[in-house]
Amino acid sequence: MGAWGPKLYQDDVAQDVRSQFKDLLHRGKTAEEITKQMISGYAVDDSDDGPIFWFALADTQWGLGRLLPEVKEQALALLDKGGDLARWEMKDPKQAVVRKKVLEELQQKLISPQPTEKKISQYRLYKCRWKIGDVFAYQLESDLAKEKGLFGRYFLFQKVDEYIWHPGHIIPIVYVKVTNDEQLPASAEDFNKLEYVQTSSSKYDLMIEEFRPTERNLTREEYWQKVEIMKAELQFDEYGYLPQFRIKLVNTSNRVIPKKLIHIGNFMDTIPPEIEYVRKNKISIPAFSWDKFNKTIEIHLIEKYFNYNKRQLRIYQTN
User: Which residues have C-beta within 8 Å of that of residue 78, sequence separation ≥ 6?
Assistant: First the structure.
């Protein structure tokens, strides 16, 4: 029972149904199209999750002025039979009293006239136009850059991949390099000579899903053999960590990209970091956002540079 309380949306399924229905409306689908899609995607006939699905869908549609007759019929039929009250009476009789009231209120709502259909705005999805290999320069001008002796030098962002950022923006995944001085690289050869900024680090830990074997029905011996094979394929730094260099730049409109950013070229034949762990799941790659004054990302990356490249983090301190 994925519920933490007796109210209608104190439940994982109910929250998912409400969020998905609204999300798909913002994407331009009709209530009929969404309902058909969701019915095929949820266990609507399940004795536990089925009623929750129909209650949440009916309530969400009613509130938006889009309650379909078949959804109303399904929800009211289940409510006439007591809904999922029996489960609550078995689990927690005190909370069952609250659940009973919730279901009664839902029933009264569904038989009352629904509000007029609410206007739903469509998502305005953005796709960053940077090409793979594009390199952009950002000059460091913060107080922290002065303090650390980096003032006037540049961070170089090179796009190497893309990521879909909710609700569907296409944003760049980049490497970050730092120049040695105020001179910008004029070629891939110049670019290759510059230092990558390490942005994260991981221990090999089987608690992290992507480090575990995905095959099912392995014996214990086969499982650990697979673990050792997977571990042997990774490259660790001298401290036993997996260094990471990629970040997501949350460019969700042209307005957020700093005007001071300089496009210096497209360098395709560049050498990646010598030792690098690339996350299997892009969602785990750190995300950095441009703020109003573009200082936050500069400060964060300077801190990353000194924490990892200059080994100032505690994990690198040895007795």
Answer: 50, 51, 54, 55
Q: And the tokens for 228?
A: 């050792």
Q: Which residues contact residue 207 at a Cβ distance below 8 angstroms, ignoring those fewer than 6 apart?
A: none
**CA–CA gap between residue 124 and residue 7 (Å, rounded):** 33
Q: Which two tokens stand for residue 119?
A: 């206007």
Peptide bond connecting 172 to the previous residue in cis, omega within 30 degrees of 0: no
pLDDT along the chain (319 residues), means of 10: 87 96 96 97 92 97 98 97 92 93 97 96 93 97 96 98 95 98 96 97 91 91 94 94 96 88 95 95 92 76 97 85
Cα–Cα separations (whole angstroms), residue 184 to 195, 262, 318: 13, 10, 36
Q: Say how many C-beta atoms besides its own lie within 10 A of residue 175's C-beta.
A: 21
The structure tokens listed for 185 are: 């690289």
- Spatial distance between the Cα atoms of 273 and 176, rounded to a whole number of angstroms: 11
Domain ranges of the chain: 12-111, 134-316
Residue type, 316: Y
Helix (H, G, I), strand (E, B) or coil at 156: strand
**Contact, 224 vs 232, CB < 8 A?**
no
CA distance 282 to 161: 10
Q: What is the pLDDT of residues 250-309, one digit of tens each?
A: 988 888 888 899 999 999 989 999 999 999 999 999 999 887 555 689 999 999 999 999
* Whole-number Å distance between alpha carbons of 245 and 57: 43
d(CA 261, CA 141): 13
Given a contact cutoff of 8 angstroms between Cβ atoms, the answer to whether 148 and 306 are in contact is yes
Q: By the 8 A CB rule, do 166 and 250 touch?
A: no
> Which two three-digit tokens encode residue 50?
């089925």
CA distances, 311 to each of 94, 180, 264, 275, 305 (Å): 56, 18, 30, 15, 9
